[in-house]
# Entry
Amino acid sequence: MAHPAVQEPTNMEIFRAAEILRSGGLVAFPTETVYGLGANALHEPAVARVFDVKGRPRFDPLIVHVADRTWISRLAAEWPPQAQQLADRFWPGPLTLVLPKTSLVPDLVTAGCSTVALRIPDHPVAQALLRAAELPVAAPSANPFGRISPTTAVHVRDQLGDRIDLILDGGPCRVGVESTVLHLTPAGPVVLRPGGITVEELEDLIGTVQVIDATSDESPSAGLLAPGTLPSHYAPRTPLILQSETALLPFERGGAGARRENPSVPTPRLGLLAFHTASDPARFTCIEVLSSTSDLREAAANFFAALRRLDAAGLDLIIAEVFPDVGLGRALNDRLRRAVHG
# Structure
């Protein structure tokens, strides 16, 4: 099978993609967060193929994307007042709501959980595709499971190649990190995954929310409530550590003097993923600065693409700066900590 073309999203290609979804095929498409790998959420063989193509464990649930709220009553068994408030403010947009599901949603989509994760994406190509398909689309990120999320169509093509039926090219993703996943529980709202809507924005609207610890271990056998919440995720193939941990590295402790005493020890090729500036740049083979103006939104939009470039640079190690743990910095730190586990 030849690699699928990276298609410009003309009306003809949108309708072709919609027909592929209706017939049980897989379509990669852009959202404002990352590119998704979409299948008809109500067709279990198509959903099973998503898991197979990604190499994704079936205990990890999928987000269901819809064009508007007309599908909500068919997919969610409850729609509490808080959900209405949040949808009014943040939909379409990078917020996923976890709610009790109806029997229409296959258990394969939700990994056997009694809840379903729902989102209305804010990207014109995603919106056009969902409206043309006239069905809910289950769509995790369009990349091999646990690896760097794709933020361009070329990333999808390079990682998944001929394993999917069509790739729609909507340009680079504007937000650049996945959606925030919010579980509306009887005890109060819980952020299961930080993302494109910040905790501060949520709390301005609905009051205090609980945030799950990004480094906590969850039992796969019990099932997960949200995607992207395993301790290891978003990982490059090149080892990655946080800058605060570099003192633990043997070649860092000795410094250049130690290498002069033992010249047979090769100098490691280091990459730096920096927020706004690179201190000690001579130390690094490759440097990626995410925002020279310290703009967390710009950093988020550039994050996965920069990490991907470092991963492709033939480095021995990637060192990543930790972000301010506020706003989108919380989501970026979450991705870093999970990447370290990889």
User: Anything to note?
Assistant: Residues 112 and 223 are 7 Å apart (CA to CA). The chain is about 30% helix and 15% strand. The longest helix spans residues 296-311. The longest strand covers residues 95-100.
